[in-house]
Amino acid sequence: MASKPRTLYEKIWDAHVVERQDDGTCLIYIDRHLVHEVTSPQAFEALRLAGRTVRRPDLTLAVPDHNLPTTPRTAPDGTRLPIADKQSAAQLAALEANAPAFGIDYIDAFAAEQGIVHVVGPEQGFSLPGTTIVCGDSHTAAHGGVGALAFGIGTSEVEHVLATQTLLLRPSKTMEVRVEGELGPGVTPKDLILHIIGVIGTAGGTGYVIEYRGPVFKKMSVEGRLTVCNMSIEGGARAGLIAPDDTVFEYLKGRPYAPTGQAWDDAVEWWRSLATDDGASFDKSVVIDAADVEPTVSWGTSPEDVVAIGGVVPSPDSFSDPSKQEAARKSLDYMGLAPGTPLEDVEVENIFIGSCTNSRIEDLRAAAAVLQGRKKAANVRWAIAVPGSGLVKRQAEEEGLDRIFTEAGFEWREPGCSACLAMNPDKVPPGERCASTSNRNFVGRQGPGSRTHLLSPAMAAAAAVTGRLTDVRKLMGE
Ligand SMILES: CC(C)[C@H](C(=O)O)[C@@H](O)C(=O)O
Ligand code: SF4
Predict the structure, then answer these.
(1) Residue 420 marked as a ligand binder
(2) From the CB of 116, is ligand 1 less than 6 Å away?
């Protein structure tokens, strides 16, 4: 008898069930565990107190990112500079001590490979198709871009995975986001995922794992796929993933943690078999026409508060749901915006190009293409470009992108989470706006009182040049 058609998610899930309980809860094997400094100290401490070891240190990789300053980490004479903030320093020191104590691979703050954990995983070939990947971090969904089932976990689960290499989980429902057609010029994967979240809402994916399907994703680079999957959590989903294909295999081949020789060939054969079967059904399906996606920006304090750049700040009354009306009123008050204002009239004082959503080489290239031969506007006080990893930084420097950024008036920084969230010195001052390529525009996200507008790297570069939110297509080909 032919087996029932299954989705990509179901195939990965089934391949990792260690034990299934009567109520449907499963003990799931975890293939890869990424660790950063913020959510790991208590987990390691708990292991220590219980006298436990890490079950599979070889499947665990640690790297600092959130608390690191992005200014130079060493003095000109090579001395390592101290971290001023006490809590940050303590968390970084804990990771630095815990990794060798528990025998875990550790990329330290001074290594060329250091970077944001979600940039480092795929870049090192640690994140592989068909694997289960966890990290004590909500944006772990990013790794779904290489066809992994990847999701964020809490600190107590970090401890559980460290100790057992397994997790107790209930299966998720399946959701398909199918994008038909082709994205237009100047419309990027970031615009697409902002648009998708605008359509489904921040609760649209709750209880689901999303599979992004359709011709747009087949043509999309790995970098773009990581951007899309990264923000699945902003649509409420547990994880997001895209079927692995030759684009992914070519990207991963030869990377340090990727399999080699016969093991590589065997892996590719299995990876090819993971695509959702014809006839498999999803619990929910959303269809998006790529032609409807424009360069998109956020106006409020939730990632679903998005509008095409040619649009206006919406009126709270335009929402039918009374709680959304109230939320929109509060958002607009916080953001200092009046309904009806054209987005292109909104001035920005800060530009942040970075974060695990948009700090890969393609993102920097897209921003640099807009900035080439141009300068930031006089009202733009602070503009920073923060590569997602030391390897991205080096590649960008080899291509001369750092000079394009600095000549345009940007600061060229060391890798880290930076101004994505206010856990390190990179902050947006109260009341100021930031055109930001990150993934969250929550109240206070980039510093107390900061006002975030989410957008793509090309759009952030356009905003830097004009000092206002700007349709990048107007600057293209000029
Ligand atoms: C600090 C960390 C736990 C947090 C997360 O889980 O995502 C951070 O990375 C974020 O983006 O808000
Ligand atoms: S870059 Fe931002 S979203 Fe990504 S892990 Fe760091 S803080 Fe979280």
Answers:
(1) yes
(2) no
Q: Contact 208/240 with Cβ under 8 angstroms?
A: no
What is the pTM for the complete model shown?
0.98
The neighbouring-strand residues paired with 451 are 433
Average pLDDT along the chain? 97
Cα of 143 vs centre of ligand 1, distance in Å, is: 15
The DSSP letter of residue 431 is T
CATH of domain 296-474: 3.30.499.10
Which residues, judged by CB distance below 6 Å to any ligand atom, belong to the binding site of ligand 2? 65-66, 116, 118, 137, 139, 355-356, 417, 420-421, 438-439
Architecture of domain 8-168: 2-Layer Sandwich (3.30)
Q: Measure the CA–CA gap between 213 and 290, rounded to whole angstroms.
A: 12
Q: Which amino acid is at 122?
A: P
| 229 labeled binding residue | no
Determine whether the shortest distance from the Cβ of 371 to ligand 1 is under 6 A. Answer: no
Domain with CATH 3.30.499.10 in the chain: 8-168, 296-474
Distance CA 122, CA 84 (A): 31
Whether 434 has a binding-site annotation, put simply, is no
Alpha-helix residue ranges (DSSP H) falling in 27-85: 41-50
pLDDT at position 448 over 80: yes
Which pLDDT band, with edges at 50, 70 and 90, does 359 fall under?
Answer: very high
Average pLDDT value for residue range 83-93: 96
Question: What dotted CATH number matches 173-257+267-292?
Answer: 3.40.1060.10
Ligand 1 center–CA 140 separation, angstroms: 9
Per-residue pLDDT band for 189 (boundaries 50, 70, 90) equals: very high
- Type of residue found at 8: L
Report CA(277)–ligand 2 centroid distance (Å): 34
Q: How far is the CA of 452 from the centre of ligand 1 (A)?
A: 17
